[in-house]
Design brief:
The chain has a four-stranded antiparallel beta sheet with strand order 1-2-3-4. The N and C termini lie close together (11 Å). The protein has one helix spanning 3-18; strands at residues 26-28, 31-39, 42-49, 54-62. The radius of gyration is 11 Å and the shape is globular. It contains one helix and four strands.
Length: 63
């Protein structure tokens, strides 16, 4: 990932971490804490853990 894209992606990911259920994300297989979203032209699959305030990215796909 080039520097400019990485910078946009990291900024968008920080915003998503503050509101992981927003930003156009959708649940995967009806599991609210397992989600997918497109941020900065990157498709991200992630898990949300509110008990420890963690967002774990499990897959990235560059568009």
């Amino acid at each position: 990932m080039d520097g400019a894209r990485r910078s946009r992606f990291e900024s968008a990911l920080r915003a998503m971490a503050e509101d992981p259920y927003g930003h156009g994300s959708t649940p995967i297989n009806k599991e609210e804490d397992r989600r997918e979203a497109t941020v900065a032209d990157v498709v991200v699959r992630y898990y949300v853990s509110e008990s420890v305030l963690t967002l774990t990215v499990v897959r990235l796909v560059y568009l």
